């Protein structure tokens, strides 16, 4: 309820009267699929439709939803989840510069390739408590290196100052510095439909999250290992805060059934699967429902 309360508090307009609302979702809670941001943004869009006061500044809308999570759910989250929930476009990925808040839409569409989300259906009770710890460790690394943000550090600078960093702090910084580079490379790969390179970067990202950032878990590692051993898979990695939740796998459409079968046979847990594609962000679907109802009346 705190997520909803926070969004109501920071809504740009004003809900002058009370209201009844039902919240229904197919997004797994705590699965690393941005369920918190989904709830925040859906609430904001609902309030816009209710009050007919629309915030055309999408960045401001995202920041208000983020602030709701910071202040009401006491979670110092980043901004990525809110941005994509609001600004998503069909057939496109979103490249976000978290410093300038600049958004670049990158093509992510192929008739022969899909995204397979695999839910490990495990959740180790560390994700919420460890996120602030990782954030503080990265801030500590930046302070020691004399920069405002690890965004200002390249691999050469990090390695030349390795001895001045505590081992754990160094590993956290190495993940962030390498992940920034991978993200840029991944966007370039998508622009030319180079899914093979993109998939390779996904695996490198997972290994970095596992070894340097230490937010993975045996179940996620097993799911990734099973997936990348299958023909037709470009790459796979954990997603979200870690310690359970989901993996994301980029693969050929023709390989989906085989990959699902292998995971069911080899994974020690009980997985669930979702086929996903890049789609439009949150919006009021009332006009679509009204059009569908009218069409049915005249059938």
From TrEMBL:
Its EC number is 2.7.1.6. Keywords: ATP-binding, Kinase, Nucleotide-binding, Transferase. This is Galactokinase 1. GO terms for molecular function: ATP binding; galactokinase activity. Belongs to the GHMP kinase family. GalK subfamily. One of its GO terms (cellular component) is cytosol. SUPFAM superfamilies: GHMP Kinase, C-terminal domain, Ribosomal protein S5 domain 2-like. Residues 187-268 form the GHMP kinase C-terminal domain. It comes from the Eukaryota. Residues 2-88 form the GHMP kinase N-terminal domain. InterPro entries: Galactokinase (IPR000705), GHMP_kinase_C_dom (IPR013750), GHMP_kinase_C_sf (IPR036554), GHMP_kinase_N_dom (IPR006204), GHMP_knse_ATP-bd_CS (IPR006203), Mevalonate/galactokinase (IPR006206), Ribosomal_Su5_D2-typ_SF (IPR020568), Ribsml_uS5_D2-typ_fold_subgr (IPR014721). Gene3D superfamilies: 3.30.230.10, GHMP kinase, C-terminal domain. GO terms for biological process: galactose metabolic process. The lineage of its organism: Eukaryota, Metazoa, Ecdysozoa, Arthropoda, Hexapoda.
